[in-house]
Amino acid sequence: MTEQMNRPLxxxxxxxxxxxxxxxxxxxxxxxxxxxxxxxxxLPKSYCHHCGSxxxxxxxxxxxxxxxxxxxxxxxxxxxxPAPCTIVLVQLDEDPAIRFVGYLDGTPExxxxxPVRVRFEHVEPxxxxxxxxxxx
Length: 136
What we know:
With about 140 residues, the protein is mostly beta strands. It contains one helix and seven strands.
């Protein structure tokens, strides 16, 4: 478990995203999807904008992706994230239209398409944040 004072924490009980955070505590990466037409609904919604169904749920997705873009922060934006650090936008291998933001320590050498995989950071009891690391 990461010990970081005053770490910003996600809202884990929001109606639209609680399932995501619950799955993360079990080290599962999930995306909202329509149970009627199977469309991924990312960003999460309570209904399907494609078929109009309100029958939605969470579907587990693969743990791999690639760097879509990134930025290097050379000054600290929060004490829990010391500079330098790199903010990445990751597109999933399973569906490149699904993208997640993540944080990498330091300034790793990156290129568009650099392979990454999810890792789960247990921040405090009941709060786990999916993060990314370079794939080996």
